[in-house]
Write a structure and sequence with these properties.
single chain, 207 residues, mainly alpha, 7 helices
């Protein structure tokens, strides 16, 4: 909640939040299109416009806590030729997009950081830093295997048939479970190890 006490830093975080949610959902929709599902494209969700993907509470969570969600891109699995494989591809596409964004920003700062800071000042540095942090937070959060997060879609593909009824039950109440875990702080047990692992994969040397 430190951003509430520092409106300037809050302002510098907004570009990272808008890009993270837009690119995340765009990647879901584009991956779905590649495996045969045109639903997202038909509904105008193959867009980098944040308004097309905006979810109030998910965006506020992302802005103030570093993890959150956007309005999910519609997916119709009936178009999938290989449902389990294609579901994994679509589910991980958003995470991959956020992680790729973080990598590109890190590499940009390694190559052009001093020049960037010279022309933009500390504000420019913090904008890029927040883009990295927010995208990493969104990627890590979505890998948690709780519906409706992307990690749950990957888990679904590997569950034996007998366990699917438990998954469907959790999917029905997943958002309530997620809110409870967020309010109690239990979500940190899942979030921080994933965030730390992804952060360790970033080519941060030399920044």
């Amino acid at each position: 909640m430190g951003l509430l006490r520092n409106p300037y830093m809050l302002l510098l975080t907004i570009p990272g939040v808008f890009w993270a949610i837009s690119f995340h959902e765009f990647c879901h929709g584009y991956a779905a299109k590649l495996v045969g599902d045109p639903t997202a494209e038909r509904q105008g969700r193959l867009s980098l416009n944040p308004l097309a993907h905006f979810d109030l509470w998910g965006t506020l969570m992302l802005l103030f806590f570093g993890f959150g969600w956007a309005k999910p891109v519609p997916i119709n699995t009936r178009y999938f030729k290989n449902p389990k494989r294609d579901m994994i591809i679509v589910a991980l596409a958003g995470v991959a997009g956020n992680f790729l964004t973080a990598i590109v920003c890190v590499l940009f700062m390694r190559a052009f950081g001093p020049l960037w800071v010279r022309f933009t000042g500390r504000a420019g540095f913090w904008v890029i830093f927040q883009v990295i942090q927010v995208n990493m937070g969104l990627a890590a959060f979505n890998l948690i295997p709780i519906p409706p997060l992307d990690g749950s879609k990957v888990l679904y593909a590997f569950l034996p048939f007998g366990a699917l009824r438990y998954y469907y039950w959790m999917e029905q109440y997943g958002m309530f479970i997620l809110i409870f875990l967020l309010m109690t702080g239990i979500i940190d047990i899942f979030f921080y190890p994933i965030f730390s692992l992804l952060s360790a994969l970033l080519p941060t040397g030399g920044i």
